C-alpha cells in the first residue's frame, strides 16, 4: 500500500498558529476542530492513518547546511514563498484515487486546499 503526504498550505503573510486561531469566531473554530477530529477518527478507523501534525510557522525555522567545511545555521526557511506547509497527514491508501478522496474530506473539514503527493518507495 502506498503512503501519501497530504499537506495544508498557509499564507506566509499570516503565519497562523494555535494561539492566533483563538482569535477566530469561537463557533467557527469549534466547528472546524470538530470536523478535523471527525476526519482524523475516520482515518484511524479505516486503517489509513499513519501520522499527522501541525507545523510552527516558517519564521521559527532554522536552515542547516553542512555541505561545506563547517556547518551553517541560518534563521528562517530555506526558501521564500507566498505559502508554506502548515500541517500534514501521512496516510496509507490503495491508490491515488483513494488518497484524493481522503484529501477532499480534509479540504472540506479545514475549508482549505490540500496538496497530495505519494511518498517515494524504496527500490527493489
What does this structure look like?
By secondary structure, this protein is α+β, with helices and mostly antiparallel strands. The chain has a domain at 1-9 and 25-58 and 84-119: Dimeric alpha+beta barrel (Alpha-Beta Plaits, 2-Layer Sandwich). 32% of the residues lie in helices and 31% in strands. The chain contains three helices and six strands. The chain has a four-stranded antiparallel β-sheet, covered by helices on one side. The chain has a two-stranded antiparallel ribbon with strand order 3-4. It is flat and about 50 Å long. The two termini are 15 Å apart. The model has no long low-confidence stretch (mean pLDDT 90).
In short:
With 124 residues, the chain is α+β, with helices and mostly antiparallel strands. It has helices spanning 18-21, 26-46, 96-110; strands at residues 2-11, 49-54, 62-65, 72-75, 83-93, 115-118. The protein has a domain at 1-9 and 25-58 and 84-119: Alpha-Beta Plaits.
Features:
alpha+beta, two-stranded antiparallel sheet, 124 residues, 4-stranded antiparallel beta sheet, Alpha-Beta Plaits, 31% strand
Write the layout of secondary structure elements.
Blueprint: E1 2-11, H1 18-21, H2 26-46, E2 49-54, E3 62-65, E4 72-75, E5 83-93, H3 96-110, E6 115-118
Antiparallel strand pairs: 1-5, 1-6, 2-5, 3-4
Structural class assignment = alpha+beta
The total count of strands amounts to 6
> Helix-strand pattern, N to C?
EHHEEEEHE
Give the C-level CATH assignment of one domain: Alpha Beta
Amino acid at each position: 500500500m502506498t503512503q501519501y503526504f497530504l499537506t495544508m498550505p498557509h499564507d506566509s503573510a499570516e503565519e497562523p498558529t494555535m494561539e492566533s486561531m483563538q482569535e477566530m469566531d469561537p463557533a467557527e473554530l469549534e466547528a472546524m476542530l470538530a470536523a478535523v477530529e471527525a476526519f482524523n477518527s475516520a482515518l484511524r478507523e479505516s486503517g489509513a492513518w499513519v501520522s499527522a501534525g501541525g507545523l510552527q510557522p516558517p519564521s521559527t525555522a532554522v536552515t542547516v547546511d553542512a555541505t561545506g567545511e563547517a556547518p551553517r545555521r541560518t534563521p528562517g526557511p530555506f526558501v521564500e514563498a507566498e505559502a508554506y506547509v502548515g500541517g500534514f497527514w501521512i496516510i496509507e491508501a490503495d491508490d491515488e484515487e483513494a488518497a484524493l478522496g481522503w484529501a477532499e474530506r480534509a479540504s472540506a473539514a479545514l475549508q482549505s486546499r490540500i496538496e497530495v503527493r505519494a511518498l517515494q518507495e524504496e527500490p527493489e
